Amino acid sequence: MATQRLFFALELPAPLQQQLVQWRADNFAAEAGKPVEAANLHLTLAFLGEVGDETSRKLQLLASRIVQPGFALDLDDAGHWPRPGVVWLGCQRAPRGLLQLASLLRAQAARHGCAQSAQPFHPHVTLLRHAASQVALPARGFHWRTDIHHFALFASNVTRGRTRYQALARWPLLSSGE
């Protein structure tokens, strides 16, 4: 049975991805860690792991039934998790819509055999991997705001040592007028 490494996530618009890459270059030394490529910058909602075609189809059907308003995402916080070696960008106050969407997707994934972390959901965009144990974080005062109108299912593909995330399906969130 063929499987794919899948996850539900929020896509960041390409202009925002480029802004974050520039900000990262301006604020972190080259030796701070391995930068995540601009096209791979995203905010994971639910990690599914290795998933077979049947489970993928079921989860996509359930995702298509989600009816939830879109929301604004404010990226205004940064942090460093030394154990996994990750430098991240997140929100000081996660919007309720984001937390609800992630909770729903994680619960559906768990019901279909996709183990979910026991750790509380911490919405973040990974900026650096294999980060040094001591990383100087930039002073607060940065802020990016983007409106979220959809979420997606991604496959993680590794080719010649490079990871690429491919959107397999997208689902809209309701606009404020619906």
Q: State the helicity in percent bands.
A: 10-25%
Shape: globular
Number of β-strand runs: 10
Order of helices and strands: EHEEHEEEHEEEE
Low-confidence stretches at least 5 residues in length (pLDDT < 50)?
Answer: none
Strand line-up across the major sheet: 3-1-9-10
Largest sheet: 4 strands, antiparallel
> How many alpha or pi helices?
3
The percentage of residues in β strands lies in 35-45%
| N→C terminal distance | 41 Å
The average pLDDT is 94
**Coarse structural class:** alpha+beta
Description:
It comes from Pantoea nemavictus. It is an enzyme of class 3 (hydrolase). One of its GO terms (molecular function) is RNA 2',3'-cyclic 3'-phosphodiesterase activity. Keywords: Hydrolase. The protein has 178 residues and is of the alpha+beta class. Helix content is 24%, strand content 39%. It has 3 helices and 10 strands; from the N terminus they run βαββαβββαββββ. Strands 3-1-9-10 form a 4-stranded antiparallel sheet. It has a 4-stranded antiparallel sheet with strand order 2-7-6-5, covered by helices on one side. Strand 9 and strand 10 (162-172) form a beta hairpin. The longest helix is centred in the middle third of the chain and has 16 residues, at 96-111. The mean pLDDT is 94.
Kindly list the characteristics that best describe this protein:
178 residues, alpha+beta, four-stranded antiparallel beta sheet
